[in-house]
Amino acid sequence: MKKTDPIVEITDLCYSTGGQDILHTINLSIYPGDFVSIIGPNGGGKTTLLRLILGLLKPSRGEIKIAGRPPGKAVTEIGYVPQHVNHNLRFPATALDVVLMGAHEPQHRFRRRDPETRKNAMDILHRLGVGTCAERKIAALSGGQRQRILIARALVCKPELLVLDEPTASIDTKGQTEFYELLKELNKELTILMVSHDLLIVSSYAKSIACLNRCLHYHQSFGSSRDVLDAFYSCSVEEICPVGVVARQSFQIKDLRGKS
Ligand SMILES: Nc1ncnc2c1ncn2[C@@H]1O[C@H](COP(=O)(O)OP(=O)(O)OP(=O)(O)O)[C@@H](O)[C@H]1O
């Protein structure tokens, strides 16, 4: 794969389930170094799109390539930080144990770790500012510390793409700023794809934006379109898809608000 080739290439992707058309003819190419934020109203299909990219769902039509390969064959190319993690408080795993679970392909998650893998995991924990948490039980950590442990778990297989689904839902405002500064730093080496509802964060940190409401529009830059994005959020998924309207940017916000 050349450095100029897309890391994610989605062509004419459709996904339906239970007779519901959830994603409709999605086309998206994400290139190395990008920091893409996916935004859109509740039920717009953001998590579904991530699950398709991760290979957890199969497209009804169309194709997804990750680093030139089908998603199921590219598991170590993607580090994933999920939206909700239900930590079993009785499970006696340390933070380091959790990070090491990300070091191998799913069928080898619990095999013995070699010293080099452990050292790599510890280096990542220190780099993320949670090295001192390594031997503590995951259940005893704060929400912000746990979130960093999950990023460390996603990074330990040295992925090219970091995928995050609303990563700061359980972190306070100060913690969120630190978290996004960390992502900015990681973006110097990694491509990032993140679902977020926080338009302030999106406009401050993301380099490009994908508006998803069943259909998708991708914007390389969006400096002056903050008001339009706000309006986009005032729509529900049942309304005529407003993503085309966002794409044109000539749209009057009051027109969209008038529909709801
Ligand atoms: N397993 C499933 N079976 C049937 N329908 C599903 C399933 N998962 C999601 N859906 C439906 O797909 C649509 C998109 O859901 P999805 O979770 O991808 O949206 P989202 O944009 O991530 O929403 P939110 O912002 O609320 O997290 C919704 O209408 C949802 O009800």
TrEMBL record:
<keyword id="KW-0813">Transport</keyword>
<dbReference type="GO" id="GO:0005524">
    <property type="term" value="F:ATP binding"/>
</dbReference>
<dbReference type="InterPro" id="IPR003439">
    <property type="entry name" value="ABC_transporter-like_ATP-bd"/>
</dbReference>
<protein>
    <submittedName>
        <fullName>ABC transporter ATP-binding protein</fullName>
    </submittedName>
</protein>
<keyword id="KW-0547">Nucleotide-binding</keyword>
<dbReference type="InterPro" id="IPR003593">
    <property type="entry name" value="AAA+_ATPase"/>
</dbReference>
<feature type="domain" description="ABC transporter">
    <location>
        <begin position="8"/>
        <end position="239"/>
    </location>
</feature>
<dbReference type="InterPro" id="IPR050153">
    <property type="entry name" value="Metal_Ion_Import_ABC"/>
</dbReference>
<dbReference type="InterPro" id="IPR017871">
    <property type="entry name" value="ABC_transporter-like_CS"/>
</dbReference>
<keyword id="KW-0067">ATP-binding</keyword>
<dbReference type="InterPro" id="IPR027417">
    <property type="entry name" value="P-loop_NTPase"/>
</dbReference>
<comment type="similarity">
    <text>Belongs to the ABC transporter superfamily.</text>
</comment>
<dbReference type="Pfam" id="PF00005">
    <property type="entry name" value="ABC_tran"/>
</dbReference>
